[in-house]
Hints:
This protein has a six-stranded mixed sheet, with helices on both faces. Strands 3-4 form a two-stranded parallel sheet. It contains ten helices and ten strands. By secondary structure, it is an alpha/beta fold. The protein has a single domain (4-256), classed as 3-Layer(aba) Sandwich (Protocatechuate 4,5-dioxygenase, Chain B), CATH 3.40.830.10. The chain has helices at 19-31, 70-74, 83-95, 110-119, 138-147, 180-194, 198-202, 204-207, 211-214, 223-231; strands at 4-8, 38-42, 52-54, 101-103, 127-130, 156-162, 237-241, 244-245, 249-250, 253-256.
Amino acid sequence: MTPVLYVSHGAPLFALDPGVSGAALQTFAQSLEARPKAVVIMSPHWMPRSPAVMTGAQPATLHDFGGFPEPLYQLQYPAPGAPALAAQVIELLALAGISAQGDAQRPLDHGAWVPLMHMFADAQVPVLQVALPQRAGPREVYAIGAALQSLREQGVLLVGSGGMTHNLGEFAGPGVPTAPYVLEFSRWVEDRIAQADLEALWDYRQRAPHALRAHPSEDHFMPLFFALGAGGVGSKAHYLSREVLYGMLAMDSFYLQ
C-alpha cells in the first residue's frame, strides 16, 4: 500500500527555504514506487466546527499569514482538486459514523501547499483537504484517519501536516540554540510511536514531558493522529527529518509503512 506521511510544515518561510526538511520530503516523494493518484491531507489551518471535506475541482492557493516577504505571497500551487475522490472520502467517513460536509469553495492553506511544493513541485497530483474539527481530540482525529486507510490501496497518499512542537510565543529568530524541552518532547513522541503505545499518545497532555510548553494549543499536534490512524496498527515509522528551526520549532517528518 501507499505509505502514510506525517510532516511538520513549520513557518510559511519553509516554502522559500526548504532546508534539511524540504530536501527530505523531496527525496521521499522521489522514492515512491509510483506517483500518488491523489493526496488527501489534514492541516490545522482549516478548523471548522464539524468534519468537512474539500470538494472543489480547482482549489485556490490561500496565503493565510501576514508580515512575511512579498515573494511568499506570489507563490501559487495550482494542483487540481479531486471531486470524485472527495465523494468517496465523505462516504468512507459516513461508514465510520463520521458525518462530513463537502466544501466546494475551500482553498489550499499553507499547511497543505507548502510541504506539497517540496514533494510535487509541478502541482500535477490532485489534492483535497480533510478538515480538522475544532473540538476533536486525539481519538477522534485518529478515527478520521483510520476511516480513510483503505484509500492507500488505491494509490492515495494520506498526509497529516502539523508541527512536532509549536510554541510561537518562544520564537526568537534564526540561530537560536535548540531548547532542551523541544528534543525531550519530540523524542518521547518518537519512542511512543515506535512502541505503538497509543494510550500514552492519546493522553500525551498528561504523560509527555513539557507537553503544554511544546503545544500551548493542540491544533498543530492533532494531524499526527490523522497519520497514525491512516497508518493503522502495526505500521512502522521511518523518520525523514528531525530538524529544529528557531530553537523551538521541531520539524519532525516521517512516513508510516
